[in-house]
Amino acid sequence: MAELFRIYGIIIVEFLGELCVFCALMLWPLKRRGGFWWKLPLSLLLLFAAGIPAAWFYQYFGENVFGRIAVYLVLFAVVIGLAQLCFDESFYRVLFCCTLAYAAQNLVYKLYLIFWTAGENFRIFDTWGANFDLYYRLVYYSFFAICAAAVYFLLIRGIVKRLSACKLNYRMLAITIFVLGVTILLCSFEDVYFARLSVERENRFENPDYVILRQTGNIFSAVCCVIVFLFASKTVVADELGREVEDLKYAIRQSEEQYRISKETIDLINVKCHDIRYKLAILASEGTPSMEDLEKSISIYDSRIETGSPLLNVLLTEKSLFCEQNRINLSCMIDGGKLGFIEEGDLYCLFGNLVDNALEAVKNIKEPERRVIDLVVKSKDGLLLVQEENYFDGTLTFEDGLPVTTKGDKDYHGFGMRSLRLIARKYGGELTAYAADGVFHLNIIFGNMQSV
Questions:
Q1: Whether residues 344 and 419 fall in one domain
Q2: How far, in Å, CA of 378 to CA of 306, rounded?
Q3: pLDDT in single tens digits along all 452 residues of the chain
Q4: What is the pTM of this model?
Q5: In what helix (H) or strand (E) does residue 83 lie, and over which residues does it extend?
Q6: Which of 92, 216, 363, 392 is the most buried (most CB within 10 A)?
């Protein structure tokens, strides 16, 4: 009975506790089921209750490789089932999260074994004497806390941030589970057979070759766990990029349709304005009193921005009407003929998002002299430069070189910036952005323009 409680307290409870820590880190941001706060403690109670028969089984079969594997896999399956009870997510998403949690637990355990095996064989811990068990626990828990924090910030956090919107790649999930399964199998073989080769205490060896083999196995297992995280990270990043590409394609299709509608609308307005001005000229020649105010009102619709690109002419003319109505100064110096290498849908989406972001930033600025947007497209030394500058209020935070949308400044350059970068890179360009002295600066550089 004493041996059963020792196994339960030291082996099973510690394993389940560590696994629960990483499961919490992986699952916490996901959608929860109704009654979560009573299901969670009930699930933990059931989990640790399931550890009692697992400890009994471990007592009789734990020295056998497959017996040990069976114990850990059964407990892992219980964790998955209870996680499914608490979180309103698909089975595959819960399995994915729990698999990564197991990989994290195994990674930290193997890192500890690397440290402990080295210390044992250099006789570092021999001075602990009668307090050995106490010092061992203190070192173990401290090591676990430090490594768990490092694993979270280096490996888990980036995955968790994208996980809620991620559509899992099942083939990648299968590969991840396979790699983890191989790792667990190897770890069980190592733990069982190297325990038999140990002298005095586990992981202390008389033969130096055993030390090398043990550490090689520990390092290999740790590397396999890191590979699991690399596979997982690739899954969520690839999914995010795929969704961005699909969103961009949709935006481009919408831009093409918007361009067609805008062109027809502006052409119709210009035709009507020309007709009205012609009739006003006839009335004036017949001695009708001056209608300068009416002509002035009409002239805004009869003006066009000329860039050398029919598409940009339509787009910027449309934007200039909004600027005129909102007392915003839109300054354009654009050599649109140089942009012919960009497809129409991409071009409309690129400049549409660029100008819309700038308009969002300046339209609420109170000072008239700061309600200014400067847009320049020019070629220089074989490069094509697209430059946009505008004032803004508040502060901008940048992440990965792009301004980040926050609650305080959600209207400033938050929407479409990643699309701008994707379009720029599609045509061999690069986008950079920065803010200085209340002015936002965006630059896109396209290279190899000699052939354009």
A1: yes
A2: 15
A3: 677 777 787 889 999 999 999 999 999 988 899 999 999 999 999 999 999 999 999 888 888 888 888 999 999 999 999 999 999 988 888 988 999 999 999 999 999 999 999 999 888 898 888 889 899 999 999 999 999 999 999 999 988 887 766 776 677 678 777 877 887 888 888 888 888 888 888 888 989 999 999 999 999 989 988 988 888 888 777 776 666 666 666 566 655 656 665 666 666 566 656 666 666 666 666 655 555 555 555 555 545 677 888 888 888 887 887 887 788 999 999 988 889 899 888 888 889 889 888 988 898 899 989 999 999 999 888 899 999 999 999 888 888 888 876 444 444 444 478 888 888 988 999 999 999 999 999 999 998 654 44
A4: 0.66
A5: helix 65-86
A6: 392
Query: What are the residue ranges of helices labelled H in 122-207?
Result: 132-151, 157-163, 170-197
Residue labelled with tokens 């203190």: 138
Q: Are strands 372-380 and 439-446 parallel, antiparallel or unpaired?
A: unpaired
- Whether residue 287 is contained in a domain is answered as no
Straight-line distance from the first to the last Cα atom of the chain, in angstroms, rounded to the nearest whole number: 83
Check which CATH number belongs to the domain holding 397 and give it.
Answer: 3.30.565.10
Q: How many residues does the chain have?
A: 452
Show the beta-strand stretches assigned E in 187-328.
Answer: none
- 126 and 7 in a common domain: yes
Structure tokens at 385: 């430069």
How many domains in the chain? 2
Q: Which two tokens stand for residue 192?
A: 């069982």
The Cα–Cα gap between 211 and 45 comes to 39
Say yes or no: 141 and 206 in one domain: yes
Same domain, 74 and 204: yes
- For residue 197, the enclosing domain spans 2-250
In this structure, the strands spanning 372-380 and 329-334 are: parallel
Separation between Cα atoms, residue 397 and residue 405, nearest integer Å: 8
Phi, psi of 24, rounded to the nearest 5 degrees: -65, -40
